[in-house]
Amino acid sequence: MSMFAEVTISRSLKEVLAITRHVPFRVTVSLIIIGLFAFAAMAPKVLQTHDPLAIDLRSSLQSPSIIHWLGTDQLGRDLYSRIVEGTGQSLAIGLGATALSMSIAIVFGIAAALSGGVVDSILSRIVDVLFAIPTLLLALVFVTVFGPSVLTEVIAVGIGTAPGYARMIRGQMLAIKGTGYVEAAKVLGHPFPGIVWRHILPNAMSPLTAMMTIGVGQAIIWASGLAFLGLGVAPPAPEWGALLNAGRNYVIYAWWLEIIPGLAVTAFALSVTIVGRHLQDRLEGRT
Q1: Closest by alpha carbon to 167, among 139, 201, 137, 208?
Q2: Where is the ABC transmembrane type-1 domain (predicted)?
Q3: What is the reported pTM?
Q4: What's the average model confidence in pLDDT over 136-165?
Q5: Between residues 14 and 246, which one has the greater pLDDT?
Q6: Over residues 258-277, mean pLDDT
Q7: DSSP tag of 196
């Protein structure tokens, strides 16, 4: 290895250490947990110890052991492998629902804040009505009408969480719309679409980056709640909420079927919430 390469690696390590030195321990742990779940979602076969769909009735309802690390379900399927297999579906639901809700919220928030007058009043009242309906109830109605599937879960949770984001985006847009640098850009004759694109939208969306991170964890919890009520992904899909729904009938004598999938949901949601709060604090401090 050349001296130049050694100096480059040494400098890179110092930069990494300098960055991590300013990151709280809880955030570092949360990032590691998120990274493990992300790896499980992208390469589940690497981490699995058994076929997640293989039925073995002779091994049904076995407690955690060396062979089956997290035990087995009522059909003898390895719970650890099923949790790993279901990570991709659960994360896809969380990311998809958050992306959909933010897209809807951006359209409503921008249209309401920039239009003003009657348009703002009408759109604000629509958002207020939707915001008054509980998220889970709105999602339940949608899934009941269109049937349970990954797509309907994404749409249901996305629509249910969109009103809250829309109100935040509208508030951010109105606050930035009246700032001095926006007024100065208007006085200088800059076109209004350019002012929105270059000044208003980037500054309004920056604080919401952290909220999007937190929203992924919340979306997974909402989707798991739907699945627990029997309105989630159909069996034998090992989505986390479906695992919770399947294990509730055996919770008295097979606690691992309910507790361990619940811990997976909690660990991921808590980790993304901690990272999101940290980003929010950093962005607010920068502002």
Answers
A1: 208
A2: 87-276
A3: 0.80
A4: 83
A5: 246
A6: 90
A7: I
